[in-house]
Fold this protein.
Amino acid sequence: MAPRMAAVGNPTRMVGKLELGLGMGPGEAVAEVEELRRRNSDLELEAAEAQAREKEARRELERTRERLRVVEEAEERLTTELGELEAEAVAQARAYRLRIKALSDQLAIAHEILTSTGFHCKLVALNRPNNY
């Protein structure tokens, strides 16, 4: 048996083709087709709204990605600066330690000279604050 073609635009003929309205009168079948069209329209509207929400979500995701990229670049710059500052602090600490050592050596030499000339003093007394 050859398939039957339904006429486009004729809801009553399409009902039979869609296997809708079996056991219904022509008015009920038309009403069901209209209900399906309304439901289809509602679904198309929901799909369009979902696409709009998805599009907005994608834009928000892109904005978030851009902010993340900027934050990561800032983190890299700060890490680099922190590394440079740390290296500078280490260099200053070494220089300070060398200066302290040099001054301690000078003080030891001065103390030896004073001791060898017969001048005896306690270094602790030199470090006391003046209480005058």
In short: Residues 3-8 have pLDDT under 50 and may be disordered. The longest helix spans residues 26-116. The helical segments are 11-17, 26-116, 123-126.
